[in-house]
């Protein structure tokens, strides 16, 4: 059994690593601002944001879409904004996986729900998720802008993203912590711009 001191040291190391990665990402604020620019343009012109990812990244997709549809901050009064998490419908996901293969679980519904001018967020900690890569490929054929929240070296997904942020780490947990923080920052800035709030 590990001692309490050893577990306390583990907690401190994990928090320090998570914080260090986030500080490193903050040095490239231009990448974040470029993503906000894409999203602002889409929403101002009546388009929508779509999200996809597997596992924890599926949960992040649903989390971020909900922040847009319902609200991010209770202190900001605004309308609901159009967002779709392609991870939400088990009937759609299982039908697509059964009929077309798991690689198509996001691409198939995207082809029906997406429109030129929309923005698709592909969230993958490895940058190698076949279902996310396929969705990014289909988005490009539909003139949907592509944003990657990626990890590691970006993987094959990096080449398919118009804008991206790559968390330079190989540990899934730490990458996911950065992805949801980045998602919140993007939505905060977007909300400030579209409502004229914030500083």
Could you characterize the architecture of this molecule?
It is a single chain. The chain is α/β, with parallel strands linked by helices and 199 residues long. It has helices at 4-26, 29-44, 56-69, 90-100, 107-113, 130-141, 172-195; strands at 49-53, 83-85, 119-124, 145-151, 163-167. The longest helix has 24 residues, at 172-195. The chain is 54% helix and 13% strand. The protein starts with a helix and ends with a helix. It has a single domain, classed as Rossmann fold. It is globular, with a radius of gyration of 17 Å. α1 crosses α7 and α5 (107-113) runs parallel beside α6 (130-141).
Quickly count the helices.
7
CATH architecture assignment? 3-Layer(aba) Sandwich
Characterize the largest beta sheet: strand count, sense, and whether it forms a barrel.
Answer: 5 strands, parallel
Q: Helicity range of the residues?
A: 40-55%
- The stretches of 5 or more residues where confidence is low (pLDDT under 50) are none
Structural class: alpha/beta
Q: DSSP strand (E) fraction?
A: 5-15%
GO molecular function, one term: carbohydrate derivative binding
Protein name: SIS domain-containing protein
Organism: Acidiphilium acidophilum (Thiobacillus acidophilus)
Pfam families: SIS_2
């Amino acid at each position: 059994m590990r001692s309490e001191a050893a577990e306390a040291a583990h907690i401190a190391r994990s928090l320090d690593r998570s914080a260090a990665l986030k500080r490193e990402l903050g040095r490239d604020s231009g990448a974040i601002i470029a993503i906000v620019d894409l999203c602002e343009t889409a929403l101002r012109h009546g388009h929508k944001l779509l999200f996809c990812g597997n596992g924890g990244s599926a949960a992040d997709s649903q989390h971020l879409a909900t922040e847009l549809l319902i609200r991010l901050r209770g202190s900001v009064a605004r309308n609901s904004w159009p967002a779709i998490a392609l991870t939400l419908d088990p009937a759609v996901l299982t039908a697509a996986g059964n009929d077309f293969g798991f690689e198509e679980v996001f691409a198939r519904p995207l082809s029906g729900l997406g429109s030129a001018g929309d923005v698709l967020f592909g969230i993958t900690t490895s940058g190698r998720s076949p279902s996310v890569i396929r969705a990014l490929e289909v988005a490009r054929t539909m003139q949907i802008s592509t944003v990657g929240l990626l990890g590691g070296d970006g993987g094959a997904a990096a080449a398919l993203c118009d804008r991206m942020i790559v968390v330079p780490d190989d540990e899934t947990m730490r990458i996911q912590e950065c992805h949801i923080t980045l998602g919140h920052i993007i939505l905060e800035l977007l909300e400030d711009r579209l409502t004229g709030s914030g500083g």
